[in-house]
Design goal:
CATH class: Alpha Beta
Radius of gyration: 16 Å
CATH topology: Dihydrofolate Reductase, subunit A
Strand content: 25-35%
Structural class: alpha/beta
Number of strands: 8
Shape: globular
Order of helices and strands: EHEHHEEHEHEEE
Length: about 190
């Protein structure tokens, strides 16, 4: 059975945002160590990205390789190559034409749709849509949680864990700390 990984960037106070802070933007000649930990080291196991309609639209507008520019950090080109290569699965009852290769729409009741996807042959599926990730967390469908926590108390934005109807207890798998105070936390869901 395929595993479902939630991959999110959050602040210390739980907002799904990307605030700037000293050390948050590595120079172009240095690797992006957070991106390496969150994505690059997992590229061999992830073969699908799961989206809701909104996040798919945002990614389809930004991540295709054709949108990269010369002045960007090299990480963006590498992430675009990855995003172009893997399957993009949009959980939506409103399929529409798209120009981004390897995209498919899956409709129906969310829990049943995710169960069907988990039973397909393939590698890990990564959820990158905050609202979808929250709903899948609420339903207990996430197997692994990967959070890049920035050393910022932001106080505003899109709060990730708001609205859970009951506690979720997770098992810590790994913690990595980085030079600008970031943490990458890997948890697994418990039954």
């Amino acid at each position: 059975m395929r595993r479902l990984l939630l991959s999110m960037y959050i602040t210390l106070d739980g907002y799904n945002e990307f605030p700037a802070y000293p050390g948050s933007e590595p120079p172009a000649d240095e690797p992006d160590l957070i991106a390496e930990e969150m994505w690059i080291k997992r590229w061999d196991s992830i073969d699908a990205l799961l989206f809701d309609d909104q996040t798919y639209g945002e990614w389809a507008d930004f991540w295709p390789i054709a949108n990269r520019t010369a002045g960007e950090h090299p990480w963006f080109r590498r992430m675009s190559e990855f995003a172009d290569r893997v399957q993009k699965v949009v959980l939506s009852d409103s399929p529409r034409p798209t120009t981004w290769d390897a995209t498919r729409f899956v409709s129906g009741e969310l829990g049943e749709a995710v169960s069907r996807l988990k039973n397909e042959a393939g590698g890990t599926m990564a959820v990158v849509a905050p609202r979808l990730g929250m709903e899948l967390t609420r339903r207990g469908l996430i197997d692994d949680y990967l959070f890049a926590v920035s050393p910022v108390i932001l106080g505003k934005g899109r709060r990730f864990f708001e609205g859970l109807d009951h506690q979720r207890t997770l098992r810590l798998v790994e913690v990595r700390s980085f030079r600008a105070g970031e943490l990458v936390l890997h948890y697994q869901g418990t039954p």
